UniProtKB/TrEMBL annotation:
Domain HTH araC/xylS-type, residue spans: 140-237
Keyword annotations: DNA-binding, Transcription, Transcription regulation
Designated name of the protein: AraC family transcriptional regulator
Origin: domain of life: Bacteria
Keyword DNA-binding: yes
PROSITE patterns recorded: HTH_ARAC_FAMILY_2 (PS01124)
Source organism of the structure: Streptomyces achromogenes
Length: 239
């Protein structure tokens, strides 16, 4: 069973997932019922079985094999995690890594003990993220505006101009903050818009146009590339 709630950390989501016999929402589990984690422009701090991990930004569906287990996580708003974690996003692209590979081992052991002792691991993760955010200071408003512009479907060139950057400078900033260039980020954000529309029952042809695709076949191709399956199958599985 998967549940989520809005975090006290601006733009973040706190979530938990418990095994139901067919896997869990982190993309791990046994059997054919495992649903992949889709690219979403975000990074997560994860807790499972005494381990703290970081999920880097995905460019493809993520569905590792392994036994079903319980997870807790906090999903950061796009572009905010690298500052909190102290590592450029592109170094974690399409990876899941131990937090101890990024932070001093002693510090991570203390954090693991803290989460393990907490009655609610998800809230403990949220508290850790809030403390780290207080140390790091406010997020860069330029990155927030960048995500907003691309999520509105604006061209990369127009977005760069509005932010006062050339396209090469925009690309460098995107690699550090999101793990990939602005065109990939725009594709992922467009997919999120399409899925949100399709889940409301909007016809696929209308979904394609409203989300910013040329037509329904364009939408279908992009869903297969980024989600690894047809749109109908993805929605039927709760993706």
């Amino acid at each position: 069973m998967y549940t989520e709630r809005t975090s006290r950390l601006t733009g973040a989501v706190v979530w938990t997932k418990f095994p139901t016999g067919t896997g869990n929402g982190t993309g791990t589990g046994t059997g054919t019922g495992v649903r992949p984690v889709l690219p979403d422009g975000c990074m997560d701090l994860l807790w499972s079985e005494g381990r703290l991990l970081v999920a880097g930004p995905d460019t493809r569906p993520y569905a590792p094999e392994g036994p079903a287990r319980s997870w807790a996580g906090i999903r950061f708003h796009p572009g905010t995690a690298p500052t909190l974690l102290g590592v450029p996003a592109h170094e974690l692209r399409d990876r899941r890594v131990e937090l101890a590979d990024l932070w001093p081992a002693g510090r991570v052991r203390r954090l693991c003990d803290r989460v393990a002792a907490a009655p609610d691991p998800a809230r403990a993760l949220e508290d850790i993220a809030l403390e780290r955010a207080a140390e790091a200071g406010p997020p860069n408003p330029l990155l927030h505006r960048l995500v907003q512009c691309l999520d509105e479907g604006r061209p990369v060139s127009a977005t760069a101009a509005e932010l006062g950057l050339n396209e090469r400078g925009l690309h460098r900033r995107c690699l550090t903050a999101f793990g990939y260039g602005p065109k990939t980020l725009a594709r992922i954000l467009r997919l999120r818009r399409a899925l949100a529309l399709a889940r409301t029952g909007t016809p696929y042809a209308e979904t394609a146009i409203r989300a910013g695709y040329a037509d329904q076949p364009h939408l279908a191709r992009e869903v297969r590339r980024l989600a690894g399956m047809p749109l109908g199958e993805l929605l039927a599985g709760g993706g």
